[in-house]
Amino acid sequence: MRLLIVGTLKGQLTTATKIAMDNGASVTHATGNEQAMAVLRGGKGADLLLVDVGLDIRDLVMRLEAEHIHVPIVACGITSDARAAVAAIHAGAKEYIPLPPDPELIAAVLAAVANDSRDLIYRDEAMGKVIKLAQQIACSDASIMITGESGTGKEVLARYVHTRSNRARRPFISINCAAIPEHLLESELFGHEKGAFTGAVARRIGKFEEATGGTLLLDEISEMDVRLQSKLLRAIQERVIDRVGGNRPVPVDIRIIATSNRNLADAVREGTFREDLLFRLNVVNLKIPPLRERPADILELAQHFAKKYAEANGVPVRPVSADARRVLTTNRWQGNVRELENTIHRAVLMASGDEIGADAILTPDGDRLDLAKTAPVVAHATLAAEQVTRALVGRTVADVERDLILETLKHCLGNRTHAANILGISIRTLRNKLNEYADGGIPITPAGNGDHRAVVATA
Fold this sequence. Notes:
Layout: E1 2-6, H1 14-22, E2 26-30, H2 33-41, E3 48-52, H3 57-66, E4 73-77, H4 82-91, E5 95-98, H5 103-114, H6 125-137, E6 144-147, H7 154-163, E7 172-176, H8 182-190, H9 207-210, E8 215-219, H10 226-238, E9 240-241, E10 250-251, E11 255-260, H11 264-270, H12 275-281, E12 284-287, H13 295-313, H14 322-330, H15 336-350, H16 376-392, H17 397-411, H18 416-423, H19 427-439
Parallel strand pairs: 1-2, 1-3, 3-4, 4-5, 6-11, 6-12, 7-8, 8-11
Antiparallel strand pairs: 9-10
Helix pairs in contact: 1-5, 13-15, 17-18, 18-19
């Protein structure tokens, strides 16, 4: 975590500085808004700003927005005046802290606002294999591609790799390639020189230079424009970047981790992703299974989130009841860990009694998760499957096999070779079966002409 203190607060925030540094954070100071912007443009960056409430916080927020720098602000002041706190929040600050600071309050705000307490919780063997591979390659400088559905925890795993690498004490910089407009992403990645385009009021260091010595996470890289992919490929191959509007290459020393929730091999075939870039990024692939394929992780994560949100909301920590565990483990969790976390957060707030019961496991609409209406398509498929199953009950295997073979042959317009391929049997076996059915007087679709009229096979 990188903390930037803005204003004449060094003396008052000694405690905050010490807490941050004890947790491995780096601390930088700036006397005012202009110097703070210079620090942020210069590549040091920050995960959190602690700003003197006496400064013009609204001006600082507007400067950050104008240059597309995204960093949360916590205002600090030597008064507990409610009006000062309200004014700071209205100006764009996330929180207000009175000074001198309370150590526990500072620690809580740093964790909540900077969101730097991402835990990697797992128990399932399927996830264990992924973690084992991550540990094995963490100390190398090999590029890593982390794939998996949305909400499975790709960024959490990327941070896990970084913290166990030789670059752990250097920056971990993340950029979401899908969240930034195409015309701004190049500047965000590679930086720009003053005057390079409208709004470039000063030189700005991009994420590549900001991450020098550390790790750069390119989140959802499949959404990056093909034109920009070629510039990214050069940066990875040659370890140099060109700022927008610059006239000389800038060396960088970073490890690349990329994530995608799409199949990039398909994107290559579609022409939306460069094959040579995929080879460069996909030196090691960490594929995170969806939560529905990690049943042991569901309950482990549920207990973790129950404790986390009970403490965050000041309510008693309750165990998850047996009925609630059944509901959790039978749900499909299309939104994966993110959906489970939100569900448990709701459950913590809605639960009553000594346990979190099934009646507290709710959908966002407030319905019980196990009683929620099934989506029409799913319901139709379920009904169809039940009807097929009922149609099979009471029949012999030989009868079912015969109908399957004859219906497949009809579907193939009598083509024996195609039917055998679909059924997964040899053409000889198919012919023997058809002769057997014909001897029993059963109509067989004729071969060759595709005529669906039923006749008796003679050979």
